[in-house]
Design goal:
The chain is 64% helix and 4% strand. The strands form 2 sheets. The chain has a 5-stranded parallel beta sheet, sandwiched between helices. Strands 6-7 form a two-stranded antiparallel sheet. The longest helix is centred in the middle third of the chain and has 18 residues, at 593-610.
């Protein structure tokens, strides 16, 4: 066989390139792509032999079609032999692998987080001996593993790790978009095909030889396997008669060849082959594959003798001669034979919940509540690991195996619920119809139809009526214990209400939910208080959100998303953004896609808040592509709204108003108050950017009257500073002061760090008593979270500088105005920056270049800057100074504009120019 590398015929170019690949210094990745049987496995074996000569350690893995939906199933094959190195990693990376291997609890890592951990693990494993990772049948790797391998493969340069992947040309794969270098594996030339055939099958009759060459068309596997089949007394027949097919691709003809050999085997051997094939036993050498992770075929010498199996020289185990043998074994088995094999494998993998569930689902015919419960548990596990698509399949199968109508309906409802969150709205409808018959006469149906109506087209009115009625029906039916469907209905109603922004509906909701007591979970009570009217109900919400996130490993992706929305309403989203960023890529691929869209919204909102405006624009565009592709109308216009708000902050007023009009025209007729409020906020912000304060004031009072905060209007408190500034600039000092005092009296500073910052700022701007103004400006600018909201802080500093110029003179005003101008410039808010520069010019300061050194560094800022200039990371600086990396980042965020620089690389030179008396 051509896989005997020493006898390999042809392939001079491929062998030369592969030799260079193995011998090259540094890490690299390569993909071999070709048709089935064309010789990819042989070339992979050739690479393994070359690596052995170069004294590389080799780890081999193979994609398994039956496991292509199990998250991280493929990656386990590469990582399992390296378990001994994991304990030598730091706590963070160890924790990541504990989650992936199911040894610890916690949120599933993102592709980037896991990819970085894998890179560190591979680097450690290769520190003493170069490492080669070989993957065959990569098209069957699960999506999570494929993404991580792609991430790792693109970052191997400079190390001593190499990755090589074999893919079938005609099967779509995540590696198709992995941007890894590729080497096409084509058929052999006519000359090489003849040489290979004559080497392995000398003395063929000319007629048979010609027939084999014509049928094989240079495919090495066909050249090796067809001659025994043709010589079996069939040489006088034409190809159609010989193979029993007309116009059928060569791989199927080869399967027909293998099928004749399989038929000749005894029943016990065929059963053994089937169990191995269904469990993904490898094809070819299984170097360094851990025993016990796959079914071990026994007593299969008969299959080896007829060329279906080989023996792994390292482990002594039987392995399939070629992947086509494995697939042929499965295709030839009867349904009963396959079910019997799956039953055996379910017992073999009884300690692996998800793999056991896969085999149980395929082995069971009649209703079996125990099996159904196992599948449901596997679905729950998969959902938490980003495998919502696999969870839907398991729950649907669990419903089919349920012994009662109630359990069947409940499980189909759960499958529909996950399908809705996964962006599969049509499938959600179909599943709930299967569970209810009529499709609209059950609480489960109300959950799905309400969800679809809301997110597909923003129909808040009909979905609200339907969900209200379903909750009332469950209440009236005498529900006495916490109920999963009731929780889903409550959470959906709260989401509908949030989008509607209607006071009457919210009050009715409070009246409906209040008597339900503990039937409404604590998380839902958090949503109820945060999403509706945070001014009146937000006290203590941020502490409750923090406690809920402490149990992160027990949360479904939709729970994480909802809690993060609550965190946004109390402006603590930055604490949880790292988790959202770790999770979102995973959910986009195989998980809760709709929740991933909301996660992207939240990530974008935090990027806007902390001043990462370019990143926010990219996040918004990514979300817009998803919403368009998956027909989520509400999310699409929601994304437009945030992009419009960002454009307004950046002074891109034409684009902002265009998006404002698009959002308002869609949302207002539907009663989607959440989005009409953002549209009004876009108008306010755009007018402020242009200096049109009268227009800004009119937009702002459309959100809330001065001196109060409109109930259940989420933008009412968020635009506090906007209304106050617009009022002051239009001569409405009394309205401005009344609004600032209303914020103080409503205890807004106790609700969120941002509201504390802008309330202090508003009180300072409107104060007539100089002492009060100084105190409030000081409280605003020294607030611990002030740097987290640079746009608002810069506006307060601008106002402070203007006041100082009028009350204490030009020199006193320059530091505040300088910081404001530099922040606006860094953010990319040119109209605001020009306003600040104009005020600076009024102080007599030059604005031609950054006014470095006007603001002195504190001792702590100087220490952090010195350490950063010395090359330490934020984490390393934090460890030395007992600060969190985020706090270090915030300090550097303030240091850069003070020094007039924009990068760490410029720190050393800038620090050297600071006079000693300016370091305090």
């Amino acid at each position: 066989m051509e896989s005997l590398v020493g006898n390999m015929v042809g392939r001079e170019r491929e062998r030369e390139l592969l030799s260079e690949f193995v011998a090259a210094s540094g890490g690299r990745a390569l993909v071999l792509r070709g048709d089935a049987g064309v010789g990819k496995s042989a070339l992979l074996d050739h690479v393994v032999e070359l690596a052995a000569v170069e004294e590389h350690r080799v780890i081999r893995a193979a994609g398994v079609e039956a496991e292509s939906e199990l998250p991280f199933a493929g990656l386990h094959q590469f990582l399992y032999p390296l378990l001994s190195y994991i304990d030598r990693l730091d706590d963070t990376h160890r924790g990541v692998f504990d989650i992936v291997f199911g040894r610890g609890k916690g949120a599933p890592p993102s592709v980037m987080t896991l990819g970085i951990a894998v890179l560190d693990l591979l680097s450690l494993a290769a520190s003493q001996k170069p490492l080669l990772l070989v993957l065959d049948d990569g098209q069957w790797f699960d999506a999570s593993s494929t993404e991580v391998c792609g991430f790792v493969g693109r970052r191997l340069t400079g190390g001593s790790v190499k990755l090589i992947v074999g893919l079938r040309s005609n099967v779509p794969s995540g590696f198709d978009t992995a941007a890894l270098p590729q080497l096409p594996v084509t058929t052999l030339s006519e000359k090489d095909a003849e040489q290979l055939l004559d080497m392995h099958h000398p003395g063929l009759q000319p007629q048979i030889r010609r027939l084999v060459l014509d049928e094989a068309q240079g495919n090495p596997l066909a050249l090796l396997e067809l001659p025994p089949y043709v010589r079996g007394g069939r040489a006088g027949r034409n190809p159609e008669e010989l193979f029993g097919y007309t116009g059928v691709p060569l791989p199927l003809r080869l399967q027909h060849v293998y099928g004749t050999r399989i038929k000749s085997l005894g029943e016990a051997v065929r059963a053994e082959l089937l169990r191995g094939a269904l469990d993904g036993v490898g094809a070819g050498t299984a170097a360094d594959r851990t025993r016990g992770t796959r079914y071990r075929m026994m007593d299969a010498d008969e299959a080896a003798a007829c060329g279906l199996l080989d023996i792994d020289p390292l482990s002594g185990d039987f392995v399939f001669r070629h992947p086509l043998v494995r697939s042929t074994v499965v295709q030839m088995a009867t349904p009963n034979q396959r079910r019997a094999a799956h039953a055996v494998l379910a017992d073999v993998h009884r300690d692996d919940l998800e793999r056991r569930a896969t085999h149980l689902a395929a082995s069971t015919i009649d209703p079996d509540e125990q099996v159904a419960a196992t599948l449901e548990a596997a679905a729950d596990s998969a959902t938490r690991r980003g495998g919502s698509q696999a969870a839907i399949a398991w729950l649907t199968r669990a419903a089919e195996l349920s012994e009662s109508h109630e359990e069947r309906s409940r499980r189909l409802g759960s499958a529909a619920y996950i399908a809705g969150h996964s962006g599969q709205l049509d499938q959600a409808r179909q599943l709930v119809r299967s569970g209810t018959g009529s499709g609209n006469d059950s609480p489960n149906s109300a959950v799905t139809s309400g969800y679809v109506a809301l997110f597909e087209d923003g129909d808040v009115r009909s979905s609200q009526r339907q969900v209200f009625a379903a909750i009332e029906s469950m209440r009236d039916s005498g529900v006495r214990e916490p109920d999963e469907v009731l929780t889903r209905l409550v959470d959906l109603l709260l989401a509908i209400n949030q989008y509607a922004g209607d006071e009457a509906a919210w009050e009715r909701t409070h009246e409906l939910l209040s008597p339900l007591g503990d039937l409404v979970p604590s998380h839902s009570r958090v949503y109820q208080d945060a999403w509706g009217d945070v001014v009146r109900r937000g006290a203590g919400v941020h502490e409750r959100v923090e406690r809920a996130f402490a149990g992160l490993h027990d949360l479904e992706p939709w729970d994480v998303t909802r809690l993060a929305v609550a965190a946004y309403h109390v402006d603590t989203l930055s604490h949880y953004r790292p988790h959202l960023q770790r999770t979102v890529d995973r959910e986009v691929k195989t998980g809760a896609l709709a929740d991933a869209m909301t996660m992207l919204h939240l990530i974008m909102l935090d990027q806007i808040a902390v001043g990462e405006w370019d990143e926010a624009e990219r996040t918004g565009q990514r979300c817009l592509e998803l919403t368009t592709t998956h027909r989520h109308g509400l999310f699409g216009y929601h994304t437009h709204a945030y992009l419009g708000l960002l454009a307004a902050m950046r002074g891109q007023t034409d684009r902002a108003r265009e998006l404002q009009a698009v959002v308002d025209a869609w949302a207002r007729p539907r009663g989607v108050g959440f989005l009409t409020q953002i549209a009004d906020a876009i108008g306010t912000t755009a007018a402020l950017s242009e200096g049109d304060y009268e227009a800004a004031y009119l937009h702002a009072i459309g959100l809330t009257p001065p001196g109060t905060f409109a109930p259940y209007a989420h933008q009412a408190s968020r635009t506090l500073l906007d209304l106050v500034e617009a009022a002051l600039h239009t001569g409405r000092a009394e309205q401005a002061r009344r609004h600032a005092l209303a914020a103080r009296d409503a205890h807004l500073p106790d609700l969120s760090p941002r509201l504390a910052l802008i309330t202090h700022g508003a009180l300072a701007m409107t104060a007539t008593d100089p002492a009060e103004a100084d105190e409030m400006y000081h409280r605003a600018e020294t607030h611990p979270a002030a740097a987290t909201f640079p746009f608002e802080l810069a506006r307060i500093r601008l106002a402070h500088g203007i006041r100082l110029r009028h009350t204490q003179g030009r020199k006193a005003a320059r530091p505040s105005l300088t910081l404001a101008a530099e922040t606006f410039e860094r953010l990319g808010a040119p109209t605001w920056a020009e306003r600040a520069r104009a005020e600076l010019r009024a102080t007599g300061a030059s604005t031609a270049s950054s006014s470095t050194h006007l603001a002195a560094l504190t001792w702590q800022e100087r220490r952090i800057a010195d350490l950063a200039a010395g090359g330490l990371t934020n984490k390393e600086i934090g460890e030395r100074m007992h600060l969190s990396p985020r706090t270090v980042s915030s300090h550097l965020y303030r240091v850069f504009p003070k020094l007039g620089i924009t990068s760490r690389a410029a720190l050393r030179d800038a620090l050297g120019k600071i006079p000693d008396d300016q370091n305090v």
